[in-house]
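Notes on consecutive records. When two proteins share a document, each keeps its own sequence and its own token line. Never mix them. Below: protein one.
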Amino acid sequence: MKKLLLVFAVFAMSFAAYAQIETPAPSPLAKFEQKVGLTDITIEYSRPSVKGRTIFGDLEPFGGMWRTGANKNTTITFSDDVTIAGQDVKAGSYAMFTKLNSAEQWDVIFYSDTENWGTPREWDDSKVAATAKVDVAAIPFSVETLAIDINNITATGGTIDIIWEKSYVGIPFTVPTDKMVSAAIDKVMAGPSANDYYASAVYYLNAGKDVSKAKMWIDKAMSMIEKPGFWQVRQQSLIYAAAGDKKAAIELAKKSMAAAKEAGNQNYVNQNMESLKEWGAM
């Protein structure tokens, strides 16, 4: 029995030693990042090689669904809403599957479920975010290792390119650059928002900077907010106190405390009570 246990222990140690040896993956993982306009795009996929085989029409038969790579399904992530082949796609991550209709035409499908090893066991049409019907271009040389890239880049779009063996497809997409830049311009030209004034005022208070500016900015912020929150009024009271206007600070603290009580926020009630005591109002 002891001899048998010793054999098992030696076998276990040998297996653990071998398990620490790293060998090259047949289809190495790749991660590609590209900014198009103001939108960040990331592609993660495993890259199989031809290795003397016939890929399309044999290893990957026509009429079948291909994971557009190897191992875990290929994914593409957009930081903003985009348009793919004329179809609106929300920001987020998508699996890329390819239906190999023929040697001349494929459907590249953007699928919202990214957690598949290969193609989904049960296909769900409701998870299809976009389908790009693309013509396949035959190339006059063989590309050994699958490549997925983004090319034809402009400020407003580009193409997602898939090239392998002797086949190439490009999926056109656009990004909302003009919409994003126009919104930023409108915001800047309209001047600071209530949040900008509020954040600046609180920063100046906490950093011990010019309290008169903090008071001016907090008043501006409050004038722009339809119904200030009790936490905002609390900061206003602190700024007024720091500016030497104790009377107004006390009134604001009472207002903040009443609103905090109504909201059931005992923490702010207590904070206002402490300030009122400090300022001689209780």
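Protein two starts on the next line and is unrelated to protein one.
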Amino acid sequence: MKNIFLSLTFLFVFSVSGATSPVEIKVWPEGAPKENRLSSADMRSDGDFLIGVSEAELLVYPAENPNGTAIMMCPGGGYYGLAMGHEGKDMAPWLNDMGITYAILKYRMPNGHHEVPLPDAEQAMRILRERSSEWGINPNSIGVME
């Protein structure tokens, strides 16, 4: 079993070698409805791990030959930060090659305010549905990964 996992991991890593640049969309261009009391000065990066995210953003990787499906990824990090690499952009080329439009939600950290991340995800889903024709997505065929 271990050898199969290592083989699949090896295959996955080499099949996602080149990512295109995403379309970057502010989730709340007019300001978020709930505050997390973080500022852009609080955000820092440890490689592909973002800490102290204060502004939600949707990063969309449109498929070149869309099949009508999209996935929105909400990267993990225990509400401390976001694993934007292996739980985010690293999967874009692989999913795009299958015709799936891929979006990563860079959601705001709660910073003690549990009500902050969910509205980010709901608004990001609204954005994907509103702009679905632009990317060849069926608005009823959008899944969420976390």
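For the record: Residues 3-18 have pLDDT under 50 and may be disordered.
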